[in-house]
Structures are given as structure tokens and as C-alpha cells.
Amino acid sequence: MNGTALIQALLDGVLTGSVYALMATGLTLIFGVMDIINVAQGILVILGAYLSYALTVHLGIDPFVGLLITIPTLFVVGIVIERAFIGRLKGPEKTAMSILVTYAVSLLIEGALNMIFSVNDVQISAWYVDRSFRVFGIYIAYIYLFGFILAAVLLTALYFMLYRTRFGASVRASLADQTAAALVGIDVRRVSTICFGIGVAVTAAGGMVYGATNSFNASTSYDLISRLLIIIVLGGMGSLGGALVAAIAMITIEDIVAVAWSPVWSTLSFFLVLVIVLSVRPQGLFGKQSARVA
Amino acid sequence: MFQKKNLLWLVALAVFLAFPLVVTNPTYTTIGVFTLLFMACTSSWNMFSGYSGYIALGSGAFYGVGAYTMALCSLHWHMAAGAAMFWLVPLGGLLAVLVAIPVGWVVLRVRRHTFVVITIAVFFVAQLSAINAGFTGGTAGLSLPFITWGASYYNVPFYYVALAIVIFITALSASVRRSRFGLQLLAIRDDEDRALGLGVKVAAVKLTGFSMSAFVIGMCGALYAMFIGQIYPQFVFDPLFDISIALMAFLGGLGTLVGPLLGALVLESLQQYLTVSFSNGSLYLILFGSLFLIVILFMPQGVVVALRDRWTKKDERERDAVASNETTLMASGTK
Asked: Among residues A143, A178, A225, B136, which one has the fewest Cβ atoms lying within 10 Å of its Cβ?
């Protein structure tokens, strides 16, 4: 392996990793605030990708412009799922139950997508999808760069909302301690619903970039959700910064393994890192030790 | 009361033994074999996940390991196609245990929901390995030695071997439930830290339960491969398998003995029947997802427990009525 290939892999890893960071942040935000593990996140990413795909194919709308439609749509989808199913879960086994419930929701959406779009692979197309430019001997695909900028903008907006607004303060209070948050007058129920909506809405952007860089069908969601789950477990469940670091680290490692060894086995590096980290730190890289022992 | 219960088990056993003798249509005996396989897997999954509360969603990995053991061993050892291959079924279980021990050692380090998440991840790694490893034949799959039993007879041996596995796991699950080991699993479900504090070797107990469960699921996978005769990584490592057995156990009643058996009996036979009748996978996903949502949101304890609660309440009322009669009689007698 030469130096250029390594730098190329590093760069690609950081650029695509940021998109995974966006999707994983939604997942870990939902977990942190609500103690809900949204296994449907994978299929919702694919739903977002299909929405962008349908808009480009049928209406000729550019995928990035189409986000103005798809992000609010998925926000509403998230609110509906939360109100219809997730909000009904109570009791000590709520988290484990939420996995089963969102899995069932995921199956419902998968079945519906298969019926509407068939099981054939599709990919979102635009002028920048298969073009790249060259800087210092390194090729940068436009879509990777645009995806990175999009993820950076949205993540910054999300962090700004969480750390600079009143609503963000109530979200962080609910993250820290739901009972205490409720005691100081925060409507935890409402905060939870909106957080679920936001956590799902980011999949519209993530799905659009994913759908432009990969060919996909509904069953691609299984690969996606297993990656996203590993990322948030590694980062420490409920840790927003952890999800960001873990996503970029994992995708970069995967890209480097693909260059250095074999693309076929690069996904296995995900598991190896997981095993090593959990053997040393069962709570993940940035997780708190006893904060959430069920 | 106790004898009535035993009688019910005997009647059920007699019905299952007689089924292939009465129903000879291969379409229905095929459904019978699949149903028994799922009854065994669900019951085995419940023996660990139901008793200990550690919901594993990656047991399909052990099913796949069992299936590949059957396929690879029968091919590499040039076995004659026929009944001798049944000896590979327990071997499939043992290989699944060999995989389960290191996997369990890692994944059982974390609790509850993180455990669920990691088992999902482990499952996909197993599936990916089966697709990419050289010796599995990749997505092209593997063809097992072709068994040339007549169409009317073909299903019958598989049916009885599967039934034997079901009887084995039911007996095992029942004895675990009554044993000290079973109580330790239940203690872990109720309060792992307290169980640890009271001297339960939680790590060893969890790993033992996890591996025992993998053994039976591995055997089922091996039998499945032999029955189907052709395996593909994406079908023997099926994510729907994981979620199906969880749903079947939840439907029947998590942590009970008869619940998972009944849940699998109802759901798997229904699913097979629907597949034979409609052969629409997407529609099945939607039906399955909806059913799952209804069960978890409205009957989280399972149908069997919900029904049993009604029965026992009725029994209690009757017993109370009889008891109060007796006390009044005794009271009048002493006068």
C-alpha cells in the first residue's frame, strides 16, 4: 500500500463517516432522551433514500433541494411512530421492548417499500454523483464532499440547537435525568416526541447521500442498522460526541482495511473493534459507567 | 390437577406422533417439519432468553452454523445420501456451541439493551462471513448429497427427528426450570446485581445457558440443511429467523414452558400455510409486523399467561367458595 492510497482512504473515510455520524447521532439522541433503541433507523434511512429517488425520477427535483421536502416528511413520520407505538411502552423492560416494537415497524416499512418500489436495486442520480476532482494527486468525489458539507451543516445546527436554545436545554436535562427534568417543569413527554422526530428526520439527509453513493433496496437496511448500532454502542449509548467520533473512526478504519487488505473483509473490522473495545470498556468509549444499568 | 396436566402433554405427544400417519400429503408434512423445527428453536431460545431476560436477537447465527456444519461435513466426508447424515445433526449442535462460547464470552459482558444490540450485530457479522468466506461457496450456496427417498416418504424421517429434538428441548427446558441452575437464571432476570451479591456465578451461568440454547438451535439448523438439500447464506442466516422466534416466544408467553411451543406451533404453521397459498413475501412482512406490534403492545405477557391468569382466577374463586362452605360446615358441626 502506498501513501497516496492511504491518504485517499483516510479522506474518504472522514467524508463518508460524517454521513454515518449524522444517522448515528439521531439514533443515540433518541436513546439518550427516551431509553428507546430505534431499530427502524436503518429502514428509515432507506425510506429517505427512496423519497429522494422518487423526487428526482418523477419530478426532476435535485436531491439536495428535495431535502426541503423529505426532511419535514420524515420528521412527521417519526412523530407518528412515536405517538402510535413508542409512547405506549412503559415499565422496566421498556428499552428491550422498544427494540422489538421498532423492529416490527421496520418490517412493516420494508414490506411496503418492497411492494411500492420492487426489490430491484436503484441509485439516486445527479450530475455530481459520479464525478470527482483532483487535489494534490487525490481524487475527491463531489458527492462525498457535498455529503460531508451537508452532514457538517446539519450536525452543527443540531449541536447549536442542543447547546444554545431553551429547547436544547430541556433536551439535555431530559438526557441527564428524566425525573429531575419533569420536576423542574419540563414537559418530558413533548421533548421525547420532538426528539424522536428529529432523530428520524436526520435519516432523510443521511439516506439521500447514502442512496447517491450506494445502490440500495429495502433489504440494504439490515446492513445499515447493524453498522449504526455498532457505532452507537462503541461511542457509548446516549453520547452524542461518542457517536460522532465512533462513526468517523469506524468508517475510516473500514476504508483503510479495504485498501490495505481486502474490501470483502473490511466490514469484519467493525466487529473486531467492537470486541476489543467491549473487552476493555463494556460501556463503550464515551459511555458513563453506571448511568444506565437497567 | 397435576395429573390432568400430564394427560394433556401425553395427548399432545400422541397427536404429534400420529400426524404423519394420518396426514400423508407431502405439502402438509413439510409444514409439519418446519413447524417442529421452529418449536424446538423457540423453546430453546426461551430456555436462555426467556429465563434470564437477556433477549438475544442473533440466534440465527447458530442456526446457520449448524446448517453449514451439515453441508460441509456431508460434502467433505463424501457421505452417502441417506439416514447416516442424521448423525451430523448433533455435530451441528456441538459446532454451534463452539461458536457460542467465545461469542457469548464477549456479548454477555453487557447488560439488557446493549446486549440485544450487540447480538444483532454479531448476527450480521456471521451472515457476512458466510457470504464472503471461501469454504461456504458464497452466495451461490452449497448443494448437499441428494437424498433419493420417495416423495411420499421423504418428509417422514425428518418429521420424527425434528419431533425428537422438540421432546428433548421440552424435557431439558422443564428440568432446567426446576433445577438450581434454572433458579439462578431467573434470579439474573429479576436482579442480576443482587444475584451476584448472593453468590450466583452470573458470568458462568449466563454463558452456560447461552451455549445450551445454541446447541439445540444448531441441531435444528443442521436438520434444516439436510431437509432442504441446498443452502444459501442469506437464507440460513436469516434476520427474520431471529425476530420470528422472539415473536413466537412473546406470543406464547416469555419464560413459560408451553408458551413458546404453542406460539411457534400457531405462527409457523400459519406462515407456512400463507406462503404456500399466496407466496407473497412483502405481504407477509406487513402481516407479521402488524401482528408483532399488536402482541407486544397489548399482550406483552403472551397469550398463554393471559389465559392462565384468567383460569387461575376462576379456580381461585371456586376454591374460595368451597373453602368458605367448608368453614361454615365445620363451624356448624362444632356447635
From this structure: A178
ipTM: 0.73
For residue B19, the Cα-to-chain-centroid distance in whole angstroms is 20
Residue A233 and residue A239 in contact, taking contact as beta carbons nearer than 8 Å: no
B167-184 tens-digit pLDDT: 999 999 999 999 999 999
**Which 3 state secondary structure label does DSSP give A122?**
strand
Which uninterrupted H or E stretch holds B230? strand B230-231
> In which residue are the cell numbers 452466495 written?
B139
CATH number attached to the domain at A3-280: 1.10.3470
Q: What is the pLDDT of residues A61-99, one digit of tens each?
A: 888 888 898 999 999 999 999 988 888 887 767 777 788
Q: Note the pLDDT tens digit of each residue in B147-168.
A: 777 777 788 888 999 999 999 9
Residue of B nearest to A279 (CA): B106
Residue B226 and residue B248: Cα distance in Å, rounded?
Answer: 24
Q: Which amino acid is at A66?
A: G
> Residue ranges per domain, chain B?
26-301, 309-335
Which positions 241-260 of B are in contact with A (Cβ < 8 Å)? 243, 246-247, 250
pTM: 0.80
Which chain A residues have a beta carbon less than 8 Å from that of B240? 107
Q: C-alpha B259: how far from its chain's center?
A: 11
